[in-house]
Structure formats: structure tokens, C-alpha cells
């Protein structure tokens, strides 16, 4: 009953986006915000895949974390109590995870978001790789066969690249500027996800490293405006 209600709301939101933004743009925004890809044209999917930016057609873990922290900070102004805000924020983002279809990357990001809020409450520091490990254990416990899913490998390896490789590249080359750090993050994510990408698609466009430098910041703004519209 609950899942059916969430699905109906999701479909109404999908139709609303197509009605307000047009068939093609509405389908694209629905994929980014709702995890709904049924309206996307095959040629559009192939276009994003060929350019190495197909990840924007899924709900990004980075954007879910940004959305979650936005919810947390907004609720903190209203509720005040850290414990109440943490509890309510985790519930809201868990509902959003169900609402968008419980994809592998969304579940992973939701678990990591919850741990980032719970750690300070317990007097512990948050460690992204430890949180990633727990998220992997929980998902594999629920479904061991998910290890064969390319989405699982890409989602988790991308975080390994950002959390483990990027700081080492920055230290190795003495990178300090914001642009240089962003480039290190993009390169690290690419290197970490390259093996499963080549195994599944047989090719990878090198220029996507630079393309992502422009697309990811723009995506944050686009996602915020799309959710505001909904």
C-alpha cells in the first residue's frame, strides 16, 4: 500500500515535469530527480553514454548528500534539537530513497548520509571509507548478487576514487586551488571506475574528465531548481 502510494505520487510528478518542461527536457529532469527513465529516448541515453556522462541520468549520491544536508540545515532552524533534526532528516531522505525507486547508488548515499549525521551524535568522527564499507556490507547482506551489478561497482568505486585517490593526487602534485582539486577528483573518479566501464562498454571518452568539471556544478543548481519546481 505504502509503496503503491509512493509510486502514484512519483508518476504524477513525472507527468507534471513533462507538462511544464516539455517531453524531452521533462524526461531528462525526471531521470535526475525521480529516478524515472521510462520516458528517455534511446538515442539520448546513448548520447550521454558515449560522452561519459551517463551518471547524470541517475540520482547522484553527491546530489543526494547535498539535498540531505539542505534538509538537515533547514530543519535545524525550525526544530533546534540536533537529535530531533537528525532523526527527521534520516526519515525524510529514506522516504526519498524509496520514492525514487531504491536504486543501488541512492541506497548507498542514504546510508552514508545517515552515518554522517549519527557519528557526531555518538561523539565519533565521520569517515567516508568506513561508511562506504558499511553501506557495501548492508547491501550485500540484503542481496549478495548485487556484486555482479555494474551500477554497484561504479557507485562504490567512484566514492573510493574521490575519498582515497583524490587526496593523494592533490598531495603528490601539491594542488591547492579549487579548480585543481576538482580536476583531481574527476581524474580519481575516472581511474577508479575505468575497469568496470571498459568491461561493460568497451570504451571511455577521455574528454569526459573535463566535461564533468562543468557539468557537476551545473547539476547541483539544476537539481535544486527542479525540486523547487516540484
Q: How is this structure best summarized?
A:
By secondary structure, the protein is mostly helical. The chain is 79% helix and 0% strand.
Radius of gyration, whole Å: 18 Å
Query: What helical percentage do the residues reach?
Result: over 70%
Helix-strand makeup class: mainly alpha
> In what range is the share of β-strand residues?
under 5%
Overall pLDDT, averaged? 85
Give the uncertain stretches in residue-range form. none
> Strand tally, please?
0
Order of helices and strands: HHHHHHHHHH
Distance between the termini: 23 Å
- The helix tally amounts to 10
Major sheet: none
Silhouette: globular
List the helices and strands and how they pair.
Blueprint: H1 2-21, H2 23-34, H3 42-50, H4 61-79, H5 82-99, H6 104-121, H7 128-142, H8 150-173, H9 178-201, H10 208-229
Helix pairs in contact: 1-2, 4-5, 4-6, 5-6, 6-7, 7-8, 8-9, 9-10
Comma- or semicolon-separated keywords:
230 residues, mainly alpha, 10 helices, 79% helix
Describe what this molecule looks like in 3D.
The chain is mostly helical. It has ten helices and no strands. The chain is globular, with a radius of gyration of 18 Å.
Amino acid at each position: 500500500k505504502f509503496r503503491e502510494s509512493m509510486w502514484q505520487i512519483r508518476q504524477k510528478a513525472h507527468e507534471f515535469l513533462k507538462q511544464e518542461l516539455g517531453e524531452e527536457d521533462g524526461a531528462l529532469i525526471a531521470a535526475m530527480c525521480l529516478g524515472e527513465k521510462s520516458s528517455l529516448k534511446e538515442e539520448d541515453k546513448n548520447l550521454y553514454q558515449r560522452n561519459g556522462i551517463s551518471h547524470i541520468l541517475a540520482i547522484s549520491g553527491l546530489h543526494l548528500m547535498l539535498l540531505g544536508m539542505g534538509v538537515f540545515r533547514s530543519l535545524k532552524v525550525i526544530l533546534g534539537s540536533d537529535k530531533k533534526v537528525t532523526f527527521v532528516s534520516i526519515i525524510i531522505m529514506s522516504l526519498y530513497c524509496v520514492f525514487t525507486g531504491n536504486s543501488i547508488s541512492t541506497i548507498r548515499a542514504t546510508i552514508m548520509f545517515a552515518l554522517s549525521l549519527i557519528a557526531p551524535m555518538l561523539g565519533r568522527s565521520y569517515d567516508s571509507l568506513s561508511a562506504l564499507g558499511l553501506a557495501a556490507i548492508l547491501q550485500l547482506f540484503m542481496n549478495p548478487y548485487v556484486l555482479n551489478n555494474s551500477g554497484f561497482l561504479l557507485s562504490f568505486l567512484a566514492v573510493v576514487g574521490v575519498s582515497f585517490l583524490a587526496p593523494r593526487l592533490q598531495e603528490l602534485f601539491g594542488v591547492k586551488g579549487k579548480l585543481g582539486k576538482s580536476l583531481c577528483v574527476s581524474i580519481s573518479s575516472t581511474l577508479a571506475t575505468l575497469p568496470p566501464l571498459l568491461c561493460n562498454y568497451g570504451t571511455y571518452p577521455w574528454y569526459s574528465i573535463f566535461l564533468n568539471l562543468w557539468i557537476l556544478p551545473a547539476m547541483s543548481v539544476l537539481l535544486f531548481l527542479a525540486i523547487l519546481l516540484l
